[in-house]
Structures are given as C-alpha cells and as structure tokens.
Write a structure and sequence with these properties.
Number of domains: 1
Shape: globular
Structural class: alpha/beta
Radius of gyration: 13 Å
CATH superfamily: Response regulator
CATH class: Alpha Beta
CATH architecture: 3-Layer(aba) Sandwich
Helix content: 40-55%
Strand order of the largest sheet: 2-1-3-4-5
Order of helices and strands: EHEHEHEHEH
CATH topology: Rossmann fold
Length: 121
C-alpha cells in the first residue's frame, strides 16, 4: 500500500494513540486533531486522503465537522469514517446522513481500521 495521509480526529489521547499506531504500521502519514473545528482546519491545510473521526468531542462534534467538510469544495471529496462509542442504528443512519462513508464502533479490532483504510485508499 502506498503511503497515504490520514487525519485522525479524537479528543481521547488513548484513542488517538491506538489509531495512530494501527495506521503507522500500515505505512500512513498521520495528522491529528482533537475536535471538529481543528479537524476542518487540518483537513483544509493538510489535504488528507481519508479521515477517521470521533463523534462526541468538545467545541464541534464529528457530525457537524463532517457536514462542514462536505460543504467545502476543497474538502468535500475526502471520505470520513466515524469511529465512536455510539452504537445504535440511529447513530449509523445519522452519520451517513451527515456524509460519513463508514462507521466503526469502539471498542474495535485493528482489522476494523485497516479494512476501512483498504476500502477507501
């Protein structure tokens, strides 16, 4: 797999570290953000190939950030995969309605991350 740039967005240092480790082993270049507003700024500046984003975060949640990214010409083509502890069917549906292209429920196996990585890169 060629080296690709991935933005990981989560307010939990533990979850950020876990996903960074998985993506690092897959050969990805990793950029991080800790809330939705920072994610939008980083996405515009860094132009990642894929975004893994938590939903529940301070300042701006993942749903709002995904909607905003989808409304911007420079970021609307970047796929967003939600990685969250929210596990209800309604959460998955709402994530899809906000523009999310994938949904991973915490806790997850490393394969869940790498499978999404392979599917979109």
């Amino acid at each position: 797999m060629p080296v690709r740039k991935v933005l990981v967005v989560d307010d939990s240092p533990t979850d950020l570290a876990n996903i960074k480790s998985i993506l690092g082993e897959a050969g990805c270049t990793i950029v991080t953000a800790t809330n939705g507003k920072e994610a939008i700024e980083k996405a515009k500046a860094e132009k990642p190939d894929l975004i893994f984003m938590d939903i529940i975060m301070p300042d701006m949640d993942g749903y709002a950030a995904c909607r905003s990214l989808g409304n911007e010409a420079e970021t609307k083509s970047i796929p967003v995969i939600f990685v969250t502890s929210k596990s209800q069917k309604a959460d998955r549906l709402w994530a899809q309605m906000q523009g999310g292209k994938g949904f991973i429920t915490k806790p997850y196996a490393a394969d869940a991350i790498t499978d999404q990585l392979k599917a979109f890169l």
